């Protein structure tokens, strides 16, 4: 089963309700760590959920590095796979990751939740702040009354400063709000 079939099945079956929710954004191919990693599907609402797809045409070579990056950002993570990797995928992902198996039976695609995702306790405020544009970081500095001189520093210093000054829960809520409010995600992302 290929990536497109799996992605379509997940969206039609798992995310159908999310597409009707005003406060939820579903993003395909969301870049993390300045684009060095890309998660297949991100769902952002009251939390951030990531879905990494491993189809029959994929390998698991990059998964270890992807896991490290995804763990820094998402509240909940799921690995979505076909029958090819279903028997072994639990050996590759942390125990708190969800496992979703997608199988094709004739013209029908079935989705089976093999393990439910649990809350991630490894999120990094610094990594979350990397998802924001400089203008958004500047607004955070203003809103929370932080040192305005930091606005003129390189982004790395801004990420460090804000992550040290604000509680992780505040950073998580703020980043989610910015990501959900973007109207043309990919076009804007390429321009910034």
Automatic annotation (TrEMBL):
<protein>
    <recommendedName>
        <fullName>Sce7726 family protein</fullName>
    </recommendedName>
</protein>
<dbReference type="InterPro" id="IPR047729">
    <property type="entry name" value="Sce7726-like"/>
</dbReference>
């Amino acid at each position: 089963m290929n990536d497109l079939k799996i992605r379509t099945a997940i969206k039609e079956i798992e995310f159908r309700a999310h597409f009707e929710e005003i406060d939820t954004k579903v993003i395909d191919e969301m870049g993390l760590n300045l684009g060095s990693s890309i998660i297949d599907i991100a769902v952002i609402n009251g939390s951030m959920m990531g879905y990494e797809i491993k189809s029959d045409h994929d390998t698991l070579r990059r998964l270890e590095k992807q896991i490290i990056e995804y763990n820094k950002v998402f509240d909940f993570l799921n690995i979505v796979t076909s029958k090819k990797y279903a028997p072994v995928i639990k050996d590759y992902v942390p125990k708190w990751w969800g496992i979703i198996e997608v199988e094709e039976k004739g013209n029908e695609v079935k989705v089976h939740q093999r393990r439910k995702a649990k809350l991630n306790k490894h999120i990094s405020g610094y990594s979350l702040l990397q998802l924001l544009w400089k203008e958004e970081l500047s607004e955070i500095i203003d809103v929370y009354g932080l040192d305005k001189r930091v606005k003129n520093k390189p982004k790395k210093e801004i990420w460090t400063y804000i992550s040290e000054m604000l509680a992780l829960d505040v950073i998580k809520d703020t980043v989610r709000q910015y990501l959900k409010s973007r109207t043309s995600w990919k076009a804007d992302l390429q321009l910034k």
